[in-house]
Amino acid sequence: MAFADEVKTYRKKPVEVEAMQLCAVPQFLDAVEWVRENGGIAHYESHSHSMLVHTLEGEMRASYLDFLIRGVKGEFYPCKPDIFNATYDEVPNND
Q1: Phi, psi of 22 (to 5 degrees)
Q2: Would you list the domain boundaries of the chain?
């Protein structure tokens, strides 16, 4: 049994998520409120200008310009901008 025989190619399913980019203190504070209003745990750390958010994998830090994502099961997690931009496209507002 060769390992290479077990490697397959997969495509990520198209999924819409909610997200906000953390560009300044107001966004961090809004993000903390957003997480808490949706049953999550997060807090802003003024000394490091970052926020800690409880994720399915444990506590993670979100920093300046990171995106905070609310996943398909309502979970929250931070994502670095380069990964976010390579993975997600903005969905146009249909208003």
Answers
A1: -95, 95
A2: 17-87
